[in-house]
Amino acid sequence: MIIANWKANGETQKNLHWCETFINSTDNTSLNYVGISPSSIHFKQLQNFFIETSVMIGIQDVDFEGGSRTGSISTEMASAECCKFSLVGHSERRELFNEDNNLIRKKIHSLLEHNIKPILCIGESLEEYESGETRNKLKCQIAESISKLNIVDELIIAYEPIWAIGSGITPKPKEVNSMHVFIKDVVQSATENNIVPKVLYGGSVNDTNAADFFEEESIDGALVGGASMDANVFANIVNIYKRLKRI
Ligand code: PGA
Asked: Check: CATH 3.30.420.10 for 2-245?
């Protein structure tokens, strides 16, 4: 799975150009494992453009309730618009909007109830990384946000070291791979029905380093921010994934 995270970027005309460039640079089978999360204001534009393809269009965040919650988009509303997935707990939401594991858990629960795939983002800060606290941090994020939830569908985790996001600096692919093995293990023991999740890596992925990550067995794809804004670069990443994972 390769997911584009456009964050608070995008504009109607530019988006259209992006979509046309992207679709002309990928083949039909590659589209089976592509997801795009534009801003909510552009969700429909992207959904309409890709309506006859298997590209999944999702959102970057969701509210677990509806009604008198100004500025929110509820899972119920997202589900009525056939939203396929939602990112949950991105580090920017955790840091800038004070989201904690408790809130993230409510969002995941609500998404599951509405048959929208949650993509749970987890990751450690530079300080935690340098003091060898990464595994504890990830374990705690997983335990507090998904333990004992009955997840029947596929669960996707995005492992994103905070210090690698938008920085151009990444951990070594082998290091990421061993973290993914750890995450799969922790999720398997934490979930009621022993789910083994797909784990994507996120943090400064581009078309130059993507192959190094996708060569690793337990790296099941990528969550791509900055590099996904360029349709050619994003298409290159998708094509590299297809070649290396032989899908
Ligand atoms: P980046 O962002 O690819 O620009 O590092 C990834 C993300 O924030 O999901």
From this structure: no
Q: Provide the 10 A C-beta neighbour count for residue 33.
A: 19
Residue nearest to atom 7 of ligand 1 (CA): 225
Indicate the domain borders of the chain.
2-245
CA of 168 to the centre of ligand 1 (A): 10
Q: pLDDT tens across 121-138, in order? A: 999 999 999 999 999 999
> Backbone dihedral region of 89: left (phi > 0), alpha (psi from -120 to 50 degrees) or beta?
left
Query: What CA dihedral angle connects 172, 178, 182 and 184, to 10 degrees?
Result: 100
Q: Is the Cβ–Cβ distance between 60 and 36 less than 8 Å? A: no
Q: What is the pLDDT of residues 2-25, one digit of tens each?
A: 999 999 999 999 999 999 999 999
**192 Cα: distance to centroid of ligand 1 (angstroms):** 31
Encoded amino acid at 135, one letter: R
